[in-house]
Amino acid sequence: MRGDDYISGGPFAVLSDDQLDAVSKGHCPACGSRGFVIGPAAPAGTVLNLNIECAMLDCRSRYNIAFVSGQAIHGHDLFDGRAGPPWPSEPSSA
Ligand SMILES: [Zn+2]
User: 9 — alpha (psi -120 to 50), left (phi > 0) or beta?
Assistant: First the structure.
Protein backbone atom coordinates (compact mmCIF):
# COMPACT_ATOMS: atom_id res chain seq x y z
CA MET A 1 0.00 0.00 0.00
CA ARG A 2 1.49 3.28 -1.08
CA GLY A 3 0.52 6.75 0.03
CA ASP A 4 -1.16 8.87 -2.59
CA ASP A 5 1.75 11.27 -2.71
CA TYR A 6 4.36 8.54 -3.07
CA ILE A 7 6.11 8.67 -6.42
CA SER A 8 8.32 5.72 -7.16
CA GLY A 9 11.67 6.76 -8.51
CA GLY A 10 12.99 3.27 -9.04
CA PRO A 11 15.38 1.21 -6.91
CA PHE A 12 17.84 3.34 -4.98
CA ALA A 13 15.97 6.52 -5.79
CA VAL A 14 17.25 9.38 -3.66
CA LEU A 15 14.70 10.52 -1.11
CA SER A 16 13.38 14.05 -1.41
CA ASP A 17 13.67 16.59 1.40
CA ASP A 18 10.01 15.99 2.27
CA GLN A 19 10.60 12.22 2.41
CA LEU A 20 13.68 12.70 4.62
CA ASP A 21 11.61 14.90 6.92
CA ALA A 22 9.02 12.14 7.15
CA VAL A 23 11.72 9.60 8.07
CA SER A 24 13.12 11.97 10.71
CA LYS A 25 9.66 12.07 12.28
CA GLY A 26 9.43 8.27 12.14
CA HIS A 27 7.03 8.01 9.21
CA CYS A 28 7.42 5.78 6.18
CA PRO A 29 7.46 7.87 3.00
CA ALA A 30 5.66 5.11 1.12
CA CYS A 31 2.67 4.40 3.35
CA GLY A 32 2.77 7.17 5.96
CA SER A 33 2.69 4.79 8.92
CA ARG A 34 4.92 5.48 11.89
CA GLY A 35 7.63 3.02 12.85
CA PHE A 36 10.62 1.23 11.47
CA VAL A 37 12.64 -1.84 12.30
CA ILE A 38 16.41 -1.76 12.01
CA GLY A 39 18.23 -3.70 9.34
CA PRO A 40 21.85 -4.67 8.80
CA ALA A 41 24.37 -1.90 9.43
CA ALA A 42 28.07 -1.26 9.25
CA PRO A 43 30.26 -2.35 12.19
CA ALA A 44 30.01 -0.31 15.37
CA GLY A 45 31.90 2.93 15.23
CA THR A 46 31.29 3.51 11.58
CA VAL A 47 27.51 3.72 11.67
CA LEU A 48 26.08 6.73 9.99
CA ASN A 49 23.89 5.06 7.41
CA LEU A 50 21.19 2.74 8.69
CA ASN A 51 19.07 0.30 6.79
CA ILE A 52 15.49 0.59 8.02
CA GLU A 53 12.27 -1.13 7.05
CA CYS A 54 8.74 0.18 7.53
CA ALA A 55 7.20 -1.71 10.47
CA MET A 56 3.85 -2.07 8.71
CA LEU A 57 3.68 -5.65 7.45
CA ASP A 58 1.64 -4.64 4.41
CA CYS A 59 4.28 -2.11 3.39
CA ARG A 60 7.79 -3.12 4.53
CA SER A 61 9.44 -0.47 2.37
CA ARG A 62 13.17 -0.42 2.99
CA TYR A 63 15.38 2.62 3.10
CA ASN A 64 19.07 3.32 3.62
CA ILE A 65 19.22 6.54 5.59
CA ALA A 66 22.10 8.72 6.74
CA PHE A 67 21.29 10.16 10.16
CA VAL A 68 23.04 12.96 12.00
CA SER A 69 21.79 13.52 15.54
CA GLY A 70 18.58 11.72 14.67
CA GLN A 71 17.89 13.82 11.62
CA ALA A 72 17.69 12.03 8.28
CA ILE A 73 20.00 13.96 5.97
CA HIS A 74 20.20 11.65 2.97
CA GLY A 75 18.57 8.43 1.91
CA HIS A 76 17.79 5.90 -0.74
CA ASP A 77 14.58 4.00 -1.33
CA LEU A 78 15.41 0.27 -1.27
CA PHE A 79 11.81 -0.79 -1.95
CA ASP A 80 9.69 -3.60 -0.57
CA GLY A 81 11.50 -5.72 2.00
CA ARG A 82 9.69 -8.82 0.89
CA ALA A 83 11.54 -8.65 -2.41
CA GLY A 84 14.95 -8.67 -0.76
CA PRO A 85 16.94 -11.10 1.36
CA PRO A 86 15.65 -11.58 4.92
CA TRP A 87 16.98 -9.29 7.64
CA PRO A 88 17.34 -10.22 11.33
CA SER A 89 14.04 -8.36 11.81
CA GLU A 90 12.22 -10.70 9.42
CA PRO A 91 8.74 -11.17 10.92
CA SER A 92 7.81 -14.70 11.90
CA SER A 93 5.69 -16.57 9.43
CA ALA A 94 3.96 -18.32 12.34
ZN1 LIG B 1 5.46 1.93 4.98
Answer: alpha
Q: What's this model's pTM, rounded to 2 decimal places?
A: 0.76
Distance 69 CA to ligand 1 centre (A): 23
Query: What is the pLDDT averaged over residues 2-23?
Result: 74
Q: How far apart are CA 47 and CA 5, in angstroms?
A: 30
Span from the CA of 65 to the centroid of ligand 1 (angstroms): 15
CA 55 – ligand 1 centroid, Å: 7
Q: Which of 93, 90, 94, 88 is nearest to 41 (CA)?
A: 88
Q: Taking a C-beta distance cutoff of 8 angstroms, is the pair 79, 60 a contact? A: no
Q: What is the pLDDT of residues 27-45, one digit of tens each?
A: 999 999 999 998 887 776 6
Secondary structure (3-state) at 20:
helix
* 84 C-alpha to ligand 1 centroid (Å): 15
